[in-house]
């Protein structure tokens, strides 16, 4: 019970709102809620006026309104100021909802990719029709060296994935198709990422893949380590099916350092566009 009918100690007032005494001491220190008076023995004494003010403070804090904002409101209380306060908070809540929805969209994309990984068939060559895609590419200078190439990759990531844009898929790279199939140099010519139309103003960095039939193969391990074996396998498939490559090779990581530590567990996909070669004309029987 209070020491008298008009004032409450810090402990008594704090208990009414399920707060700690330290919270009231903090409010006193910053000038948000000061006691009516401090007695000679050091006890802080709060009146009904402080009780009512604390009710406003605790309920506005439940709306996650900052202490500094509450402090300004308490100095200028009115229906109009309360409306402005709530409208500002409501707008902030709406922004948070939109941000969380965007996060959930990115999470669903990742779930979709994880589901696709579970259904991945390795070391099987497929021939499928693909629609055209818009790519954002960053060309790699053959003289860049290892460190220079990393800088190009970092710059590519910054262009494609903004500060608040989750990197939902790995960046792929383009390899000269003829060199790959010949078993010679198969270094990357450019990095690429699939983007929407008119996503960037830098038109020279856009590339649209042609619609058509693509030969694809998914495999475990790194491309660099397996490229000769992959080259032989794809070349044999093209020869047996009378197909001719008509594009560069696209290498797309499906499982990499994001979800495994050993490069031997990586899963990559290579794809190259092809067309049917004409059958040689048969001689007429005489």
From TrEMBL:
SUPFAM superfamilies: Probable bacterial effector-binding domain (SSF55136), Putative DNA-binding domain (SSF46955). Pfam families: MerR_1 (PF13411). Signal peptide: none annotated. Residues 86-120 form a coiled coil. It comes from the Bacteria. Keywords: Coiled coil, DNA-binding, Repressor, Transcription, Transcription regulation. One of its GO terms (molecular function) is DNA-binding transcription factor activity. InterPro entries: DNA-bd_dom_put_sf, MerR-type_HTH_dom, MerR_fam, Reg_factor_effector_dom_sf. Residues 7-76 form the HTH merR-type domain. This is DNA-binding transcriptional regulator, MerR family.
């Amino acid at each position: 019970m209070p020491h008298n009918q008009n004032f409450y100690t810090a402990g008594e007032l704090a208990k009414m709102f399920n707060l700690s005494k330290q919270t009231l001491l903090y409010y006193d220190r910053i000038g948000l809620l000061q006691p009516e008076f401090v007695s000679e023995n050091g006890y802080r004494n709060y009146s009904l006026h402080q009780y009512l003010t604390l009710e406003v403070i605790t309920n506005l804090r439940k709306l996650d309104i900052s202490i500094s904002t509450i402090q300004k409101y308490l100095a200028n209380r009115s229906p109009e100021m309360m409306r402005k306060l709530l409208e500002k908070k409501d707008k902030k809540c709406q922004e948070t909802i939109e941000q969380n929805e965007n996060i959930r969209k990115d999470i669903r994309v990742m779930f979709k990719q994880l589901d696709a990984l579970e259904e991945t068939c390795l070391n099987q060559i497929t021939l499928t029709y693909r629609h055209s895609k818009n790519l954002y590419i960053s060309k790699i200078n053959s003289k860049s060296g290892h460190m220079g190439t990393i800088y190009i990759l970092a710059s590519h990531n910054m262009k494609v994935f903004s500060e608040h844009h989750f990197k939902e898929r790995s960046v792929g790279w383009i390899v000269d198709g003829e060199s790959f199939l010949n078993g010679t140099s198969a270094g990357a010519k450019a990095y690429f990422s699939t983007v929407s139309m008119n996503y960037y103003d830098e038109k020279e960095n856009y590339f649209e893949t042609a619609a058509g039939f693509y030969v694809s193969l998914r495999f475990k391990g790194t491309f660099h380590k397996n490229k000769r074996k992959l080259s032989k396998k794809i070349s044999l498939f093209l020869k047996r099916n009378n197909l001719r490559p008509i594009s560069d090779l696209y290498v797309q990581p499906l499982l990499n350092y994001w979800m495994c530590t050993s490069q031997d567990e990586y899963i990559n996909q290579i794809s190259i566009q092809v067309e049917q070669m004409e059958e040689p004309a048969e001689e007429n029987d005489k």
